[in-house]
Design a protein that fits this description.
Blueprint lengths: L1 H26 L8 E8 L2 E5 L14 E4 L2 E9 L5 E3 L6 E4 L4 E4 L5 E4 L4 E7 L2 E6 L14 E3 L8 E2 L4 E5 L5 E7 L3 E2 L7 E4 L2 E3 L8 E2 L10 E4 L1 E3 L5 H34 L3
Antiparallel strand pairs: 1-4, 2-3, 5-20, 6-19, 7-8, 9-10, 10-11, 12-13, 13-14, 15-18, 16-17
Helix pairs in contact: 1-2
Length: 272
């Protein structure tokens, strides 16, 4: 009886985490570059009530009797499905068509990765302008260096080609390459990236090292779309259905606890 109480309790705890994950997905439905998170569950240990044995006449019993002790959250995985590109009125908005990530230099000096291409040109001192994200973190080039241009360049005239090459028009208004490319990086297992918030990810042993698209010929290159931002890949309808399912599962586990409590009350009443 007590076992059933604890088993149902693990179900309620797991479903609460599931609801928290779904709520986070819905809260980020308009976050640029956000990727849907999905809960994965696994069962806990099983208790043997009867082992595999034989009957009195020597006939082997086909199976044992085991009872499960509940459930727990195994992982919360990110679904890196491409979000829809949305046109915006900004020359420094970039969407990635492919599996690549932009790289930025974090406040701690470490490299971070993101699918959020909502960038701006900011003053960087020494008569230069620098491409940064909305938090002021420098966007890195294919060589891992901040992207900086002379401050006499008009930011609205800077264009970026599909492979990330930064161009500026000459005296004839023809875009010319400046020899700088926006860095694009891929991972063997993007789901293994560590999520830091602010749409930033960091490398882990599970994700594998960052693969530079400019120097790795074994991966399919991504395409940079200027004037677009990648929308969240959250499907609101699917999340609402998942929320209903999680609520019902939570409710059923709650009823199991109530039923166990009533059975314990009846067992205690037998002594009276």
């Amino acid at each position: 009886m007590v076992r059933s109480l604890w088993t149902a309790a693990t179900g309620m705890i797991a479903q609460q985490t599931n609801v928290d994950t779904i709520a986070n997905n819905l809260a980020n439905v308009n976050t640029v570059g956000y990727k849907t998170k999905v809960n994965e569950f696994k069962s806990l240990l099983y208790q043997n009530l009867q082992t595999k044995t034989t009957s009195s006449d020597g006939t082997p019993k086909p199976s044992s009797a085991q009872v499960g002790l509940g459930v727990r959250n195994a992982s919360i995985d990110s679904i890196f499905k491409q979000g829809a590109p949305q046109a915006v009125q900004s020359d420094t908005a970039f969407a990635i068509d492919g599996d690549g990530f932009f790289a930025v230099r974090g406040g701690d000096g470490e490299r971070k990765y993101t699918r959020n291409g909502n960038f701006v040109w900011a003053l960087a001192g020494a008569n230069r302008i620098e491409l940064t994200n909305s938090d002021g973190l420098p966007v890195l080039s294919e060589t891992g260096q901040p992207i900086r241009l002379p401050n006499n360049y008009i930011a609205s005239r800077v264009t970026v080609t599909g492979d990330g090459t930064i161009c500026y028009p000459d005296e004839n208004n023809n875009p010319q390459s400046l020899g700088i490319r926006i860095g694009l990086y891929q991972f063997n297992n993007p789901s293994g990236l560590d999520k830091e918030g602010d749409s930033l990810y960091t490398v882990t042993n599970a994700s594998g090292p960052a693969l530079n698209e400019a120097t790795n010929a074994n991966i399919s290159p991504s395409k940079v779309l200027q004037g677009y931002l990648e929308a969240s890949n959250v499907q609101v309808v699917d999340e609402m259905v998942n929320l209903i399912v999680a609520q019902r599962a939570y409710e059923m586990n709650s009823k199991a606890i109530t039923a166990s409590d009533e059975m314990l009350q009846q067992a205690n009443a037998l002594r009276r």
